[in-house]
Amino acid sequence: MNERKLRWMRLDNAAKIYPAAKRRNWSNTFRLSATFREPVDPTVLQSALNVTVKRFPSIAVRIRRGMFWYYLEELACAPEIACEGPCPLIHRSFSEIRRCAFQVLYYENRISVEFFHALTDGSGGLVFLKTLAAEYLTQKYGITVPSGDGVLDREEEPDERELEDSFLQNEGPVSKSRRESAAFRLTGTRERDGYLNVITGILDVREVLALAKRYQVSLTTFMVSVMMMAILSMQDRRVPDRRRQKPVKILVPVNLRRFFPSNTLRNFALYVTPGIDPRMGDYTFEEILRSVHHQMGVELTQKQLSARITVNVRTEKSLALKIVPLFLKNAAMKFVYNLVGEKTSCVAFSNLGSASLPSEMQPFVKRLDFILGPQAICPNNCSVISYRDQLLITFSRSIEETELEREFFTRLRRLGLSIFIESNQR
Hints:
Elements: E1 8-10, H1 17-21, E2 29-36, H2 42-52, E3 61-65, E4 70-74, E5 82-83, H3 94-99, E6 102-107, E7 110-116, H4 122-141, H5 166-169, E8 197-204, H6 205-214, H7 219-238, E9 248-255, E10 269-272, E11 275-276, H8 285-299, H9 302-317, H10 319-322, H11 326-341, E12 347-355, E13 365-372, E14 380-387, E15 390-397, H12 403-414, E16 420-423
Parallel strand pairs: 5-6, 9-12, 12-14
Antiparallel strand pairs: 1-4, 2-7, 2-13, 3-4, 6-7, 8-15, 8-16, 9-10, 9-11, 14-15
Helix pairs in contact: 2-4, 7-8, 7-12
């Protein structure tokens, strides 16, 4: 890496909020993991990381502070890997993130990569994890893993298209308002030491797809509807007076690469927030399914998403914002984030979809995991990934109570699905 000049890059359009919204005890991070069939060799893993980072100059970075914006600066060498701590996504201070904005961890048979969200989204992070796993298996077992299925050739120079801010490339002629109503807020008893509770439900993806097909909806629509039913029950118990209840809304990230041509490994996702208003009356599960299906159908079109992209890009390009010093931008963005950022949804439901690996890797990789860290205020988040015949639904929470997970998985069980539950509960 020292043989060439290190790159620097502006934060992409979606990433700019993350450094500004950080708190002393919270930063927006997520984790992706691969579990092998044999224990991880730390020496080989470090060697594999040393090779892999050269292919990802937008991820192997630290966060730097400029006069008007934060920016990314490529690392001169790979960070040291570390043995995993007592729980996933242990809080890292922003000073640590400014030194290195991602970290690679290992524990028994598992390797994990934890990303500060300003670097990439789940799709870009999954490409990094797969490529790192491919290089590890190549060095450990001498196999040859070709590029494909999200694995990059480690000997190639980075493609400039992988480094672009695809939001700027897809600005449209019309913008759309970002205004949304507030949603019911989940609360609980905060863990005093910052411990992150994780509960994973493992299902047979074929069973879930068959059930969703029976209802004539997608897997994501099916799961979001079950989540709404669970939260409706929780709100009924906490707020018995229906007139005082608030809408139940789920934040669903959308991979924009499905709608716009892009090879970027940086952030390129927006979100939709389908919801229902319990003040209108009782809902059957079928009514919620139909409502979510139609709301998602209206929002998930190229034209609607283009309008959402446009309002964000135009805000970034405004002259008034450009000339404001960074410390004032940070104060303004943090104020807006604290005011409305987490109040328009109850919980996030992030589905990375079906992850595939080259056939050469499959005998060695037993499982893939995805954990989305909770937000600063909203204490629960939910992330989903499938690999081969397993669907893994993972809840993370910064509170003691397991009410949401219990409601959600109980409803899935009542619908006839078999579930194996794992937890790091203390």
